[in-house]
Amino acid sequence: MTAALLEVAGLSVRFGGLRAVDDVSFAIGKNEIVGLIGPNGAGKTTIFNTLCGVIRASAGRVTFAERDVTGLAPERMAELGVARTFQNVRLFGELSLRENVMMGAYRAGSCGLFAAMLRLGRHRRLEREAARRADAWLGRLGLTAYAATKATALPFGLQRVAEIARAMASEPQLVLLDEPAAGLNEVEKHELAHILRDIVRETACSALLVEHNMPLVMGLVDRVVVLDFGRKIADGLPDQVVRDPAVVEAYLGA
Amino acid sequence: MEFVTVAQTIFSSLANGALYAFIGLGFALVNRSTGIINFAQGDLAMLGAILTGVLARAGVPVGVSAIIAVIACAAIGGAFYQLGLRPARRATIAQSVLITIGFSILIRGTVTTIWSAEPIPVPPFTGGEPLNVLGVSVLPQELWLIGTLALVAVATSAFFQRTVMGLALRAGASNPLGAAFVGIDARRLGLYAFIAAGLLGGLGGAVWAPISLAQVDIGLGLGLKGFTAAALGGFSATYGPIVGGLILGLAEGFGNGFISSAYQDAITFSLLLLVLILRPQGLLGTKPQAAADDKHEEILSRTVSATHFTRADLVRLVAGAVFLAALGQVLDGVWLTTAIFAEITAIVVMGLVLLTGYCGQLSLGQGAFMMIGAYSSGYLTVKQGWPALPAMALGIVLATLTALALGRMIFRLRGYYLSMASLGLLMIALTFARELSSITGGPNGLPGIPPLTIGGMSFFADRQFYYVGLVVSLAVLVLGLSLTRSRFGRALLAIRSSESAARSCAVDVAGLKTRSFAFSAAVASAAGSLYVHYLGIANPGPFGTDATIAQLTALTLGGLLSLWGAYVGSAIVVALPVVIGWAGGSSATQVVAGLQYLIFGLLLICVVLVQSNEHGGLILARLKTLARPRRAAAELRPS
Question: Which domain does B197 fall in, by range?
Fold first, then answer.
């Protein structure tokens, strides 16, 4: 295997005496979609939050694009090209949908306060780029009609798609999706799976999907990592993993 | 120093420290149960002292006076919560804090109006003769104060550790929603906390008053010291404010003995800044846990276009500029002067729109940056013979650097540390302005500052200066508008909605807050320079806490997110005293000052109350609401 995009090695997270994540290692390759699954309390969200920089690991290393990123703050991870979505959708309520997606392009470059106040070329270029990306992603995901709408006024299903647009507008190398199907109905889930698969293929980015919904995961991902009680119990192709006795036991509690 | 002197200093310091501890306990109690910093805490202590004095003067025995005063303070604390904070259901923390500032001004205004600002002597509870203990002279009243504090300390600790209500208060503070689920009513807890805060403040003030004098002016200073005591010892620790208060008292006592009492405030507030920077949880406090979920401080259905200038912006800019330019031709005499002061205030308030409105950071110390500008301009033009513009520019640079340095240290922490840190900075700046007379001219000020001269043109007449103020304020307005309609404006609004989502978009939250603080400091410095060029003299008077109150009232009146509102709010705030003075004719200035505070306080509370239900400035937003429903409906319809 060529060098992985993201490598998690010996990751442990302890909350007081509780080992939420215990010595977990896995990798995500370039342009690969990996599912992270497990029963409630298995440590999925903890790993997710550690990768985003929200939680600090107690031990272990996270390497992204051959660079040690263990313990970096969320904004630094985002700068490096790790985008994320939120389980309970967090769009910016005071901005329009288009402006929300433009926020995704915030990392496209930096400029000073002066450049912004005086409308210097650097700021204008960044704004043009952000607008271009926002319009492209709104168009790609069929949201153009709602561009000027207050983002939080959209129906929930569209808000989920909008969040994906915001994440993708950052042109990430890796996108972390936190239960993207939560709260969606069957039709919406189906559509979401299609959208995710297509955009990951089109943009050549990688994705990590934390999800409860097994059919969605199994139909979408290239590889599955299964957690139980903070430990990794399986890692492989979806149809192999579902037959794995350890996985069956964890899910059915046999 | 001899032993007796040391012992004497320690004992006298402890008495002052005990008062700070009382006020600090009140701060901590309210903060722990509601998350609010109650800026009126010092004024409650002042009220306790004044009421005791007034009743004693009227012939009521002093002990009875004190008891009545304490009960009154507790009742007033509770009434304030019921009438001021409880109705503000949707208020953000910053808005709640603004309401308590309004409460503080209201108490001050009421006391000044009724009893004037004259100090009232209060007889001691028992025997006025000092006792002699091992050569140390001890006032019986000091023993009363320390004894009462000890009693209160034991009672508070027992209350929090051993009673169900104490437990409920702690639960409500740590997780209001969770507490509500198990049947704890957070509002009722808030009421109890404010009653207790009134009780503690009033008690401290009443028992302390005989040692000193009861005077209206002490309220704000006591509040700051009480807060410093709580911050020093730790808000979260039961005995934190007491330990902090005693340490603060000792630091002041020995500072006065060894250095100079003139620098007392500088010592106190340097201590406050140091603690806020190095150990924000306080000496005894435990580190607060990182908030897992950020609050959605979402504003009601209103989309702010932050992407680009709209035609409406341009129309407003042209119309506004033309209107204000025409106004300069109409106004005359005292009204022209008033308009100039309004312009200068508006410049500072525009900085606050960005910092407080957009960043949610409440600064109470913009006066410090105004002073940096004022004294740079004054000192360099008068003593060094610099031309006006480079002096002003240097002031702006100095203010910006100060804000960047302070911001870098303060904004690593979330929460409302900036309010206190900036107030501390203001107090330090005021001390230096008074004491470093070789540079600042001391309390008398630095006279003989030449009028503003730009490229050989001297702006001497009021009407000329009005246009200078107009050009500078419009420039700041355009820069501010430009900033709010840039990627930074979007990012700031994004932080308000969800800090964690903003960070996931690579927004450096602390960096952005720091830069906004620097912007607000730079424009405040420019305003300070303009001020002294207009008056021809630089003195600390116009930049103190009264200016802070005026700025915050103007900000609130105009609307936290409205740069144009800065003009409206500033005009009202600056014109109000003139109108009161004019209407009051020859009546005493004391009453005028008192009424002014009273009205400012009421305005602040009422406007925040209205806004916390319907966001935006009272005056501007009201007009906009009329057009809103149709537009909102149009926005939702896909084109």
Answer: 23-221
Residues of A with CB below 8 A from B308's CB?
Answer: 127
The number of residues making up chain A comes to: 254
A148 neighbourhood in chain B, CB within 8 Å: 303, 635
Single out the residue in B579, B596, B622 at which a domain terminates: B579
The tens digit of pLDDT for each residue in B442-481 reads: 888 899 898 888 877 888 888 999 999 999 999 999 999 9
A69, A113, A127, best to mutate vs chain B, most B CBs in 10 Å:
A113
Are residue A71 and residue A95 in the same domain, yes or no? no
Give the CA count within 13 Å in the CB-facing half-sphere of B96.
Answer: 20
Residues of B within 8 A of A150 (CB-CB) are 301, 303, 635
Exposure on the CB side of residue B178, measured as CA atoms within 13 A: 8
Question: Distance between CA B419 and CA B445 in Å, rounded?
Answer: 27
Taking an 8 Å cut-off on Cβ atoms, the answer to whether A75 and B508 are in contact is: yes
Largest CA distance in chain A: 67
Contact criterion met (CB < 8 Å) for A150 and B482: no
Q: Is A16 on the interface with B (CB under 8 A)?
A: no
A77 and A90 both lie in a single domain: no
Tell the burial category of A245 from Cβ atoms under 10 Å away from its Cβ (0-12, 13-18, 19+): exposed
Beta-carbon pairs below 8 A across chains A and B: 126
Residues of B in contact with A90 (CB under 8 A): 497-498, 500-501
From CA B101, how far away is CA B109, in angstroms rounded?
A: 12
Q: Which residue of B has its CA nearest to A76?
A: B506
CA distance B543 to B528: 8
User: Does B66 reside within a domain?
Assistant: yes
Assigned domain for A189 exists? no
Write out pLDDT tens, residues A55-103. 999 999 999 999 999 989 999 999 999 999 998 899 998 889 999 999 9
Residue A163's CATH number:
3.40.50.300
Q: State pLDDT tens for residues B18-35.
A: 999 999 999 988 888 777
Q: Which B residues, 298 through 327, put their C-beta within 8 Å of a C-beta on chain A?
A: 298-299, 301-308
Task: Report d(CA A23, CA A37) in Å as an integer.
Answer: 16
* pLDDT of A173: 94
Residues of chain B contacting residue A149, judged by C-beta atoms under 8 Å apart: 635-636, 638
Q: For residue B487, which residues of chain A lie inside 8 Å, CB to CB?
A: 102, 106, 111, 116, 123, 126-127, 130
Q: Which of B39, B34, B47, B45 is nearest to B104 (CA)?
A: B39
Q: Is B467 exposed, middle or buried (0-12, 13-18, 19+ CB in 10 A)?
A: middle
Residue B116 phi, psi dihedral angles, 5° rounding: 60, 175
Distance (Å, whole) CA A94 – CA A150: 7
Q: State whether B298 and A150 contact (CB < 8 Å).
A: no
> Count of alpha carbons within 13 Å of B240, Cβ hemisphere only?
26
What helix, strand, coil percent values describe chain B, rounded to 5? Answer: 75, 5, 25
Let me know whether A1 and A49 are in one domain.
yes
Band the pLDDT of A112: cuts 50, 70, 90.
confident
User: Rounded to whole angstroms, how far apart are CA atoms B193 and B302?
Assistant: 34
